[in-house]
Each structure stands twice: as structure tokens, then as C-alpha cells.
From TrEMBL:
Transmembrane segments: 6-23, 376-400, 443-468, 504-522, 543-559, 565-585
CDD domains, sorted: 5TM_YidC_Alb3, EcYidC-like_peri
Subcellular location as annotated: Cell inner membrane; Cell membrane
Keywords noted in UniProt: Cell membrane, Chaperone, Membrane, Protein transport, Transmembrane, Transmembrane helix, Transport
GO molecular function, one term: membrane insertase activity
Domain spans labelled Membrane insertase YidC/Oxa/ALB C-terminal: 381-580
Native organism: Candidatus Ordinivivax streblomastigis
Any Pfam family hit: 60KD_IMP
Membrane topology: Multi-pass membrane protein
Family statement drawn from the similarity comment of this UniProt entry: Belongs to the OXA1/ALB3/YidC family. Type 1 subfamily.
Region entry Disordered, spans: 615-636
Function according to Swiss-Prot or TrEMBL: Required for the insertion and/or proper folding and/or complex formation of integral membrane proteins into the membrane. Involved in integration of membrane proteins that insert both dependently and independently of the Sec translocase complex, as well as at least some lipoproteins. Aids folding of multispanning membrane proteins.
Top-level taxon of the source organism: Bacteria
Protein's name in the database: Membrane protein insertase YidC
């Protein structure tokens, strides 16, 4: 250490010591601080003593109520709850109903389903899959007594009346032979729970003015899949109008909707599972609330306030159904053919398959083929490969037509370049374009012939983009290095948040997505080479074609491995088709055929009025452009 460095360290040390000395508090400041702390401690002790006294008073009051004679306590309950006061006290019990597919638990405190577990599924941590459990759900009904008391089922204890292993009645007693029964039935091999509300001799206990039974339903939505941000895109409160379409609340933010129209069902939907409340007749109206959560173990909280028709003089039960199960397209669609014939539930629309055109492609083409392949039990990886092969084979005529159009344009490249050399510059743009189109017409080539086949393939591309993220068959199915085809396959991941990268890419890299992007760049190179027809391209178009695969990598990195695997195989097949076309198509022979078409070309027909006016407008535009250029040159 040299002399200057040593002096520097000494000075720094002295500055620190001096700063500490001159900034230390005085004796008066220390005393004031001590008095302040003492006063705070006194206030806190006083608050604590007051809280203890309040708690003691509450406990004494509760003890006093408990210590009251039964007759006095019953009188108080009767005054508060009327004849239903006999059910205001009790001990909470839990009743279990189950079949081979699911297990539901019901609590006697409130008489509702407090837990639903699907036996054949697990969450992303391989734990039992609960749609909700304990305080994660609440269901209550409100009714009005004859003396206008507003009561809710959550305040009462229900008596358990066993019926069978798969059916139970929870009874809210209101006196001798008077009760409100909630009947739950879980059939074998079914995710549907029958729910009935039965009134027994309550004509004198409930208000004759009651025309509806009000319902409050809440559920906290659990994270079931590995990628929370991606799963949130499919978590939506969904509902169906009685005689109309299925609609949804927004998935990315808080949303509240007041629906004045009648509804048939209301669903709390996740990416692969749903809880659905179905009306026997209809819901009169509804207030639907979806709250988006961030710093929470739950993704959302769903709330519904609705009502069903109810008349005390009607002895028929109020019938509803709960569905707690997977978003399986075939399973949900089958309910319209079996349990709910003629009601047009359309529960299968819980599975997002895209807009009308894309949904039709999925419904009538993709899903039947995929189901047929999976019935072979050949594994999901091979099934996706064969599905890709079948689709590419079916689209082969369109692909071939598109390639032939590009090949024809390519062999005409020297002649197009000759026209460009003969008519150079912006002033000759119209003439150059007319001569080029005249050449194409003579040889029988349409510049748009290659675009139409590609556009016809787009519905399949976008339909599959919607299908794979919604296919529950892919869930927890492994293939190669991907342990779950329904979510991203991360070969590299990190926990540190990296600005922009973590936001748009995530904290991982998907190998299928990376390979797909690389192969897409290779395919882009081949496509650009074969479409080099000699015509001037738009500035930046070539760069954009290479940027697109990189953007796709960022966009699809968190998408399901099954989707990226499909895109990878599809792009590889396209590259192989391009190689095959270039190998088997003799471009010299193709050029000879095109030249032969010139001799067969018919005399040009008289231009239509529209074309004549269009060409005249182009000439006028060119003349105006030349005039402006001359004026600019004179100013210089």
C-alpha cells in the first residue's frame, strides 16, 4: 500500500468517526426519546388491558347465554329465528358421498357441499385434486318467514337423514313434521350431483309472498397446473342464457355483470376443470362477480347472487344440479344426449375451441380424428405425430398448388427482370406492372394462386392452436423429455426475475418451442429462396420474415408442449415437402410448358369498363407524380 492510499484511508476513517460524534443525540434528546417510548408503552398496555376486559365481557355474556335455562334460551332462539330456532344450535358434522370418480363432503352447518375431490386426477404437485375444500367454498339460500324474518341456511344446523350410500338428506327442522330438506344424490360413474330443495308443511312458516329462493354461491379458484399465468387465461366465470349463447366474464381483470335475463347454468371454470350450478327450470337473474387475485395462493374468487322460482303452495321440489369434473368435450356433450335430453345445456362450450369457424373445424374434424387415434392406446406423442401427418396429407393438394405457383413465378424470373430493365424507375412503374401482368396472363400464371391455398390452410392452423391447450387428454401425459404435454417443457429454468425476459418469455426455456423456432427459420430460408421471383419486395419484408420465428419463440414458450411439438412436426414435414418438390419438379420442363402457353394464348379481349377506368386513373396518378417531380426540380 503506497503513502497516498494510506493517507486516504486514514482521512476516510476520521470523517466517519467525526460524523458519528457530531451527530450523536444530546442528553436532552435521549431523555425526550425515553419519555416518548415510555408513553407509547403505557398506551399499548392500556389498549391490551381494555381488549382483555372486552374479551372477558364477551365470554361472560356467552357463558350467561349458555347458562340460561333451556326454556329461556329456546325462547330467545324462537324470537330470533321463529320456528326454525330449534335448528339454530348443534354440532357440525361432515357427511361423505362418493363413487369411483369423485368424493364430495357436506357440512351440516349450512347444509352445503364443502369439499369436492376428483379421484382420477392430481394437481401439478401430484397431490389429490380438490376443486375446493373447507372454507374455499360457500353455498347458502335465503328465505322469508311468515312474520317477515329474513333467514339464511348458513345460520342453521341440519339433521342428517341417510337414504343410501350415494344419497343423503340434510333436514332443517322447523317443528313437528315441518322441515326444509336438502337432498343430495351422487350417482355411480358420474360427475353430476342431483340437488333438490323440498318443503315439508311450511305453508304457515314461510311467507306466502315468496316467489323466489335466493342463492349465494362462492368459490376460491385453486391453481391446479404448473404455469399459473397461462392457466389464468382459461380461468373464467362462464354462464349460459336460457335460450341463447354461452358467455364469459373477463379473465384478466376484475369483472362484475348484472344479468337481468334468465340463465340456465353458471360455471366456475379453470383450464381443465369446472364447478357448474345448473337450474332445473332457470335462474331468474344473476349478479356475477369475478375477482382477479395476484399475491394469493388462489387465482380468483367467484361469487354469484341469483334466485330460482319458488312457491310455498307448490309441493314439487326445486331441482338443481352440480357438476364437479373435467372439461372433457365428449363427456360434457354427452349430457345433452342422456341426462338433460331436450334442454340444450351445451356444457361442452366450457371447452374453448375458438370462434365459430375454428370451433367447427375442431368439432367435426380435429376432435374425431384425435379421439380415434387415442382409442388405439398408442401414446399421446405418437397420436399427435399421426394427427399431424393426417392433416398435412389432407392439405397436400393445397400445399402442392402453392408450391407450383411459386415455381412458375421463379422460372419466369429472367423475363420479369428483363421487363424491369426495359422500364426502369418510378415513372415507368405503371408500364412495368402492366407488362409483367401481361406476361403472366400469356403463360397462364396468377400471382395470387399461391396465396389462396395458404389462406385455406389457416383455419386448421388456428383451430389446432385452440385445441391443444384445451385437450385434457394431454394433461400429465409425458413424451420424450416433456413430463406433461399440457404445459411447457422446461429444460432450463431460473428463479431470478429478469426484466422483459421474465415478463415476455418466462423463467424457463421450452425445448420443443426452441426447436420449432429453429426449424421455422430454416423453412423461412427455403420459402424466401423459392419465392424469389424477381419482383421487388416490400422494404423490410425479408427481415420481418426472419424476426417472426423469434417472436413466436417468445410468444409460445409458455404454451403447452403438445402444441409446440405439433408445430415442430408440421414445420419439419413442410421442409421435407419443399425438398421433395424441388427434387421432382423439373423447372426447365416447366418453363417450356409456360412458353408453349404463349402460342395458345387467345387474343386479348376488350377491357371491361372497370379495368379501363382503373388504368386511366393509374395513368393520371403517374402524370401527376411526374408533374410534381418536375416542379421540385425547378425549385432546386
Amino acid at each position: 500500500m503506497d503513502k497516498n492510499t494510506l493517507i486516504g484511508f486514514v482521512l476516510i476513517f476520521l470523517v466517519i468517526i467525526g460524523f458519528s460524534y457530531f451527530n450523536q443525540p444530546s442528553k436532552e434528546q435521549i431523555a425526550a426519546r425515553q419519555r416518548y417510548n415510555d408513553s407509547i408503552a403505557i398506551v399499548q398496555r392500556a389498549q391490551a388491558d381494555a381488549a382483555v376486559k372486552v374479551l372477558e365481557v364477551e365470554q361472560q355474556a356467552q357463558s350467561a347465554v349458555i347458562a340460561l335455562p333451556d326454556s329461556v334460551r329456546q325462547a330467545e332462539m324462537l324470537d330470533k329465528y321463529g320456528s326454525f330456532g330449534v335448528s339454530s344450535e348443534g354440532t357440525e358434522e361432515v357427511v361423505t358421498l362418493e363413487n369411483d370418480l369423485m368424493e364430495i363432503r357436506l357440512t351440516t352447518k349450512g347444509g352445503y357441499i364443502c369439499s369436492a375431490r376428483l379421484k382420477n386426477y392430481t394437481d401439478y404437485e401430484a397431490q389429490p385434486l380438490y376443486l375446493f375444500n373447507n372454507d374455499e367454498s360457500n353455498f347458502e339460500m335465503t328465505f322469508i318467514t311468515a312474520n317477515n324474518r329474513v333467514l339464511t341456511t348458513k345460520d342453521f344446523y341440519f339433521e342428517v337423514i341417510p337414504a343410501s350410500e350415494q344419497s343423503v338428506t340434510l333436514r332443517l327442522n322447523a317443528g313437528e313434521n315441518k322441515s326444509l330438506d336438502l337432498v343430495y344424490t351422487l350417482h355411480s360413474d358420474d360427475y353430476m350431483v342431483d340437488f333438490s330443495v323440498v318443503s315439508n308443511n311450511l305453508q304457515t312458516e314461510l311467507s306466502p309472498a315468496m316467489r323466489t329462493l335466493d342463492i349465494q354461491w362462492m368459490q376460491k379458484l385453486r391453481q391446479q397446473e404448473k404455469g399459473r399465468k397461462y392457466e389464468e387465461r382459461y380461468a373464467r366465470l362462464t354462464y349460459k342464457y336460457l335460450s341463447d349463447e354461452v358467455e364469459e366474464l373477463r379473465e384478466s381483470k376484475d369483472d362484475i355483470q348484472n344479468i337481468p335475463n334468465k340463465l340456465k347454468w353458471i360455471g366456475y371454470k379453470d383450464q381443465f376443470f369446472s364447478s357448474v350450478l345448473i337450474a332445473g327450470d332457470n335462474f331468474e337473474s344473476a349478479k356475477l362477480d369475478s375477482k382477479y387475485l395476484t399475491d394469493s395462493p388462489y387465482m380468483k374468487i367467484y361469487n354469484t347472487s341469483t334466485s330460482v322460482p319458488y312457491r310455498i303452495e307448490n309441493t314439487e321440489p326445486v331441482k338443481l344440479n352440480f357438476y364437479f369434473g373435467p372439461n372433457d368435450y365428449a363427456l360434457l356433450k354427452n349430457y345433452d344426449k342422456t341426462k338433460f335430453i331436450g334442454q340444450n345445456l351445451e356444457l361442452e362450450k366450457l371447452v374453448p375451441l375458438g370462434w365459430s369457424l375454428f370451433r367447427a373445424v375442431n368439432k367435426y374434424i380435429i376432435i374425431p380424428i384425435f379421439d380415434w387415434l387415442t382409442d388405439w392406446n398408442i401414446g399421446l406423442g405418437l397420436a399427435i405425430f399421426l394427427l399431424t401427418l393426417i392433416i398435412k396429407t389432407a392439405l397436400f393438394p393445397l400445399t402442392y398448388k402453392s408450391f407450383m405457383s411459386s415455381a412458375k413465378m421463379r422460372v419466369l424470373k429472367p423475363q420479369v427482370e428483363a421487363i424491369s430493365a426495359k422500364y426502369p424507375g418510378q415513372d415507368n412503374a405503371l408500364a412495368r406492372q402492366q407488362k409483367t401482368m401481361e406476361l403472366y396472363k400469356q403463360v397462364g400464371v396468377s400471382p395470387m394462386a399461391g396465396c389462396v391455398p395458404m389462406l385455406l390452410q389457416m383455419p386448421f392452423l388456428l383451430a389446432l392452436f385452440m385445441f391443444f391447450p384445451s385437450a385434457i387428454e394431454l394433461r400429465h401425459q409425458s413424451f420424450l423429455w416433456a413430463d406433461d404435454l399440457s404445459t411447457f417443457d422446461s429444460i432450463i429454468h431460473w428463479n431470478t426475475y429478469i426484466p422483459l425476459v421474465s415478463k415476455y418469455l418466462g423463467n424457463h426455456i421450452s425445448l420443443f418451442c426452441l426447436l420449432m423456432s429453429v426449424v421455422t427459420i430454416v423453412n423461412t430460408k427455403f420459402t424466401m429462396d423459392q419465392q424469389n421471383t424477381g419482383q421487388q419486395q416490400m422494404p423490410g419484408m425479408k427481415v420481418m420474415m426472419y424476426i417472426m420465428p423469434v417472436m413466436m419463440f417468445f410468444f409460445l414458450n409458455s404454451y403447452p408442449a403438445g402444441l409446440n411439438y405439433y408445430y415442430l412436426i408440421s414445420t419439419l414435414i413442410t421442409v421435407l415437402q419443399t425438398y421433395a418438390f424441388r427434387f421432382f419438379i423439373d423447372e426447365k420442363t416447366l418453363l417450356v410448358k409456360l412458353e408453349a402457353n404463349k402460342s395458345k394464348a387467345k387474343p386479348a379481349k376488350k377491357k371491361s369498363g372497370f379495368m379501363a377506368r382503373l388504368e386511366e386513373a393509374q395513368r393520371q396518378q403517374q402524370a401527376l407524380l411526374r408533374e410534381r417531380q418536375k416542379q421540385q426540380q425547378k425549385r432546386k
